[in-house]
Design goal:
The protein is of the alpha+beta class. It has a single domain, classed as Deoxyribonuclease I, Chain A (4-Layer Sandwich). The protein has six helices and 15 strands. The strands form three sheets. Strands 1, 2, 3, 4, 5, 14 and 15 form a seven-stranded mixed beta sheet that branches. The chain is globular. The N terminus is likely disordered.
Length: 324
């Protein structure tokens, strides 16, 4: 495991912080139910989603995610698609609880700073799939490592006013709400104050995604007045040519010497059932952005299978950021 003692001027110094972002993947491609991939047979499409969920069970993936986070020792972790699945009102899978338990088992405890419900959904299983009502709630979650020098002073969250409205099951309308989590922090008692934000903007409509980005930037402008360092992480569902961040926001991947579109930076694209033997990552849509701060390192993580399993359909990022 990692060396907990930070080198001089490295993570743990009063003006340095290590951050991570990772989309944990809800476990199935739900666009099979509402997107262009629909077959027209809802029961068959639902059966495919259930198959994917069975194959990608987070109880098997949580140890892989936890091991990676412990290895890199991020002070703050922004997570997306942290899901809770229920069947007939009983929780069947709780990603947050599973991941926190795996982290603790490895001797590295994290605490939840704040969480924001980002999308919900429900469906009635046909008798052939066991019947009963299944529900899903996805969250954005911000974690802090318990023995980190980072001190959280306050937390904040918000829901975007712009949401995506989808047609499911031939006329039923489903609203996909998304939002953000943030915290005011400092390193130690005397380090500079900074703000960390995690978000997950819309995946299925570019106009909604871009409007959510603009709402987020406005919210951050209120949380962090000019001059206060900000670290913004998350799945923005936009490639570098689409993301549209203002010039004041620095892309950690590029700032640390990586080519913006190089395959080494791709973070999204594994198969919905995570059964692909070779990586299918093909685009960069996950980011660490800084404003009033500068990344000194940025590393992609989770881009290799472990024991034949992919931790997620996304890779994550870990960055060391110098504040100010």
């Amino acid at each position: 495991m990692r060396d907990r003692r930070a080198a001089a001027g490295g993570p743990g110094a009063p003006d340095r912080v290590r951050v991570a972002t990772w989309n944990l993947y809800l476990g199935a491609d739900l666009s099979t139910l509402f997107g262009p991939g629909r077959s027209g047979d809802f029961d068959a499409d639902l059966a495919e989603v259930v198959r994917q969920l069975t194959t990608t069970g987070f109880e098997h993936r949580a140890p892989l995610v936890a091991r990676t986070l412990v290895e890199h020792g991020a002070d703050l972790v922004g997570l997306q698609e942290v899901c809770t699945w229920t069947h007939e009102g009983a929780v069947t899978t709780d990603f947050e609880a599973l991941l926190l338990a795996e982290l603790a088992a490895l001797g590295e405890e994290y605490d939840v700073v704040t969480r924001q419900a980002s999308f919900t959904g429900a469906a009635d299983l046909p008798d052939a799939l066991g019947g009963g009502r299944v529900t899903l709630t996805g969250h954005d979650v911000l974690l802090v490592r318990r023995d980190s020098p980072v001190r959280v002073e306050s937390s904040h969250l918000g829901t975007f006013g712009r949401a995506l409205h989808l047609e499911v099951m031939g006329g039923h309308r489903q609203t996909v709400s998304r939002g953000w989590c943030a915290a005011h922090c400092r390193v130690g008692d005397d380090g500079p104050p900074f703000v960390v934000v995690t978000t997950h903007t819309e995946a299925h409509e570019d106009a909604a995604r871009d409007r959510q980005r603009d709402e987020l930037l406005a919210a951050v402008g209120t949380l962090a007045p000019a001059g206060r360092p900000v670290v913004l992480v998350g799945d923005l569902n936009a490639t570098p040519d689409q993301v549209g961040m203002p010039a004041a926001w620095r892309d950690a991947w590029v700032d640390t010497g990586h080519a913006t579109d190089a395959p080494a930076g791709w973070t999204s694209g594994q198969s919905p059932d995570l059964a692909n033997a070779e990586s299918r990552l093909h685009q960069r849509i996950d980011y660490v952005f800084t404003r009033g701060a500068r990344a000194e390192t940025c590393t992609r993580v989770g881009a290799e299978p472990v024991g034949g399993r992919w931790p997620s359909d996304h890779a994550g990022l870990v960055a060391d950021v110098r504040l100010g």
